[in-house]
Amino acid sequence: MTQTAPAGGATRSHRPSAARRARRAASPYTYIAPFFTLFAAFGLFPLIYTAYVSLHRVQLQNPGEMEWRALDNYTAIFADEFFWTALRNTFTIGVISTVPQLMMALGLAHLLNYKLRGRTFFRTAMLLPYATSVAAATLVFAQLFGRDYGLVNQALGLVGLGPVDWQTGTVASQIAVSTIVIWRWTGYNALIYLAGMQTIPNDLYEAAEMDGASRWRQFFHVTLPGLRPTILFTVVVSTIGATQLFGEPLLYEGSVSGGISHQYQTLGLYLYEQGWGFFHLGRAAAIAWVMFLLIVVVVGVNALLLRRRARKETGR
């Protein structure tokens, strides 16, 4: 005689397994919940609130009083000639600092990738400029680029060149600010490139060497293609950093306006001047969103160009 279990017992035995499956499905989200909670509180909410503030007239003296202005803040900054000056300065300083910086970092990483004596020391020394305070580095370079007693002008005098006004001239001041950026970030990017080079298989170098390729040909035909994702990463990060450049031009002369004629005022300094110099928080929020959209466009264009180039090379 066969006995069957009651339906209620089957239901009771099935419920714990369903609850257990639900806990297992939800457990991964509990691990990542703290990150998304912090991101929503300190990343997403400030971004959305800044967009909301950019549509209002807000003064620093009374931040709680807001007057709806729609897109008037954006119209005001686009009509301001100093905004376009800051945008142009940001672009030129970004190019002057980023291109030599990444090229020097690539060369240093290529040298450190070989077996050298004391390479651990040199790899550690690469991070010393990055670990140095922005204020300390900028103040030292401001003394080096001094017009009357700076070591740079004294070195130029030894080769028969006259002194350069590194704080008043447009091109000279931008080169001086870019030099600080290059000094601080070249070693950091070199270590990133070095880490990328060490992921390239040695079999590719051995095959290229057996085919008679020199080290230069190995660098151009093996190293650079293998570093394409790393180069894209450094270009994107350097572009974001150049767009947000603030500390170096601020401390170079101690002026929010970026010099007498705004010759090296970046978008970061322009934002600070509008918000905390002229007390226009709404206009400063609009500048912040313009910078955010500019970064998105520039990064998107860089990624698109590199993807097209990669498709062309794979199509060959």
Automatic annotation (TrEMBL):
Origin superkingdom: Bacteria
InterPro entries referenced in this protein's UniProt entry, alphabetically: ABC_transporter_permease (IPR051393), MetI-like (IPR000515), MetI-like_sf (IPR035906)
Principal location class: membrane
Keywords, in A-Z order: Cell membrane, Membrane, Transmembrane, Transmembrane helix, Transport
Domain ABC transmembrane type-1: 87-302
TM region(s), chain numbering: 29-52, 91-112, 124-146, 166-185, 227-247, 286-306
Membrane topology according to the record: Multi-pass membrane protein
Subcellular location(s) of the protein: Cell membrane
Pfam families registered for this protein in UniProt: BPD_transp_1
Family in the record: Belongs to the binding-protein-dependent transport system permease family.
Protein name stated in the entry: Sugar ABC transporter permease
Native organism taxonomy: Bacteria, Bacillati, Actinomycetota, Actinomycetes, Kitasatosporales
